[in-house]
Amino acid sequence: LLKWLLGILQKAFRAGQEIFAHKECTFKLVVSGGVFLLVQIVVFMARVSWLYIPFFAAEIAFLIYSVKGAICRQKIREGLRRIAEGEVHYQIPLEGAQGEQLETMQMINRIGEGLTAAVEKGMKDERLKTDLITNVSHDI
Q1: Percent of the chain at pLDDT above 90?
Q2: Would you place residue 136 in the very low, low, confident or very high pLDDT band (cuts 50, 70, 90)?
Q3: Do 101 and 56 contact (CB within 8 A), yes or no?
Q4: With contact defined as beta carbons under 8 Å apart, do 105 and 92 qualify?
Q5: How far apart are CA 92 and CA 101, in angstroms?
Q6: Where do the H-state alpha helices sit in the chain?
Q7: Residue-level pLDDT at 106
Q8: Are 15 and 34 in contact (CB under 8 A)?
Q9: DSSP class of residue 22?
Q10: Which of 5, 26, 52, 77 could form a disulfide with 44 if both were Cys (CB 3.0 to 4.6 A apart)?
């Protein structure tokens, strides 16, 4: 039981760090969800019914799911911004992503790889063109 509780506390601490690291996209969500949850606890506990526990658990699960989604959206925005600014080698970190957001992150990472390949090909073509001009002018 102690090991299980320590595991939960460790996951909660890591989740708190992740939320804080992405506070610009999670702050409103966490505050509004927390206030809503507190209001429910106060209202439902005044009635002293243990039947409401599944509702609390569902709300907490939804809040966790929403926060993870917000963090993934922030990672996608950050990755797009960095690639658009010229960091074609930047790869969006995929940890914590799942489903459609994971696919989107993977596609963006592949776009970055494609841009890198296109830039390298362009540089190679430019070198070949320069070499050709140099050789032709030397022969003339």
Answers
A1: 6
A2: confident
A3: no
A4: yes
A5: 11
A6: 2-21, 23-46, 53-84, 99-139
A7: 92
A8: no
A9: T
A10: 52
Asked whether residue 48 carries a pLDDT value surpassing 70, the answer given is: no
Identify residue 137 by its one-letter amino acid code.
S
Average pLDDT of 90-102? 86
How is residue 17 annotated by DSSP? H
Of 60, 73, 74, the residue nearest 100 (C-alpha): 73
Distance CA 80, CA 109 (A): 9
Q: What pLDDT is attached to residue 51?
A: 62
Token pair of 80, please? 């797009």
Distances, alpha carbon 135 to alpha carbons 98, 115, 122, 124, 132, in Å: 54, 30, 20, 16, 5
- Please say whether the dihedral angle defined by the alpha carbons of residues 31, 60, 93 and 111, taken in this order, is positive or negative: negative
CA distance 124 to 13: 49
